[in-house]
Amino acid sequence: MTPEQYETILNLLTEIQKSGGSDPYRLVLYLVPNIGIIFGTTLLFFLFQWWHKQKMALIQSGQYKPWSFDIRLYSFFLGLLLTFTGFALSFVFILVLGRSMAMLGGLIPFAIGLGLLTFYKMSR
Question: Is the pLDDT of residue 115 over 60?
Fold first, then answer.
């Protein structure tokens, strides 16, 4: 690095440091995402607590009806959806960009979909 380049970088860093202290709203801008995360986490905690209390009240009153979940049918539906979505994305990426790393955006859901369809077929 030449001395001129070093001096230019040093001047730029000094200007950035001086301008950084004059912005009074910088702290607020840094706190907004943190407050959002804290608020969202608190909201989810109380939502899950409310669902738990609701389920316990239904159990105590004898009105609770457990719902069944067919994992096999769900894996078939999700497998078809991901397979065809992945195939379409891969096809478009190959047409537009050729063979590149962007193909992974289609090949990953395609492979997951094939895995779910394999689970559906083998779980009989």
Answer: yes
